[in-house]
Amino acid sequence: MFELSYELKPFRRAVATNKLGPLVFESGGNGELGSRDNRRRAIAWYVGKTLINASVWREIYSVEERGTLGEGGLDQADASYVVSTGASIGPAWAPTAKLVFQGKVVHEKRKYQGSPGLTFGVAPVVGTGEHREDTFNGLRLSAGYTPIRALRLSLSAEHGKRDSNAFLRDYDYNLISANARFQF
User: Which residues lie below 8 Å from residue 36, measured CB to CB, with a gap of 6+?
Assistant: First the structure.
């Protein structure tokens, strides 16, 4: 038996159910942004206690939206807008109601376009006549434990690498974090 339902909203969702488990398809497009062509497609597949999420996107955003001191810091100040394309995939496994393990792999390419005039950074890349392009690859592994409903504990490890055609914009990072959240 295969069953499909579909909701027509700005962010559309379709749910299909078969013998292997429910599939959730999400499709996002934002027609309210004028000439911008933002698209995000996602699928979530539930198999028993395992969820597999996959997503692909193409988004255009201005430097002002993200803020030159926000995500990306001053390195976004060398363009007036960014075209981001990427994909991610990752499983989540909940062996019990209190325990969950997750993983995620991300690949993203950012093209910095448009010229904001005099700024920090370079646009186009000095000596090449090209605009800046970055490629980011990342991996995240995490575990979560909820001993009581109001308390959530998590531990995660991340590794990421960004390659850029702009001078001094490449980096590698490793991050280990532990969090406790109490909600009342």
Answer: 30, 60, 61
